[in-house]
What we know:
Elements (H helix, E strand, L loop, with lengths): L3 H15 L8 H14 L5 H10 L1 H11 L10 H15 L5 E6 L5 H12 L6 E7 L2 H9 L1 E3 L3 H10 L10 E4 L2 E4 L1 H4 L2 E5 L11 E6 L8 H14 E9 L14 E3 L5 E4 L2
Parallel strand pairs: 1-2, 1-7, 2-6, 7-8
Antiparallel strand pairs: 3-5, 4-5, 8-10, 9-10
Helix pairs in contact: 1-3, 3-4
Amino acid sequence: MIEDEEIEILLTDLFDIHGYDFTSYSRASLKRRISRLYSLDKFPSFAELRYRVRTDESYLKRFVEEITVNVTEMFRDPSFYLSLRNDVLPILGTKPFIRIWHAGCSTGEEVYSMAILLKEAGLLKKSLLYATDLNPSVLEKVRKGIFPLIQMKQYSESYISSGGLADFSTYYTANYGQAKFDQELSDKIIISTHNLVSDSSFNEFDLILCRNVLIYFDKDLQDRVLKLFDASLGSLGYLALGSKETLKFSAVQNNYKQLNREKIWKKIV
């Protein structure tokens, strides 16, 4: 079992040697994930795990993948997407150009969900979707736009519940157990690594989505990230968070008004 002080040693190594700053992540979540990896990879000692993380680039990649959370799906929480479709996109549609940031996008299912919403609203041609994540290997999956075909039945049901206007299967080509989404969608997605812990704002956005990422951060880091989003949102822009996340008690809460029962806020200052 990994000890608390060993977690701190690993976090210091990650930052000092490789520049990854996980020091403000929830310790309980990190300990769970590192302990799982320690057991899975059958390390004889903590010293051996530490040596691999410090010196082996390929193992470092695996380590970062395992301790960052990459659980996502298309049209997750259909009522959230229904609200985007009905309450947010008609307002964004009045703008000459639309910039949307998916922060902590993981493997990109939510980015493609948004691209489909924009296409059905007739807004895709004047939109750009910026997909960012700390983990470069998950971004490669966003770039390819290929997801397991077995998941399409569930995604199709969620799409229909979110107010989908077409046959969901028209958006992808099925081949060898994989679903490859249309190039028209991926052409509108700009992919980049971005570390919410240490990187700054890089554009002005009309809508920022960061769903189910903040729950893994401590309160101070949550506030820092929300201030980053606030600085990155244009006037009257929208911020969307995950179902267990909120702006309440944050440093920026007075700048926003919650739209409805969904976790979507409009910037009012």
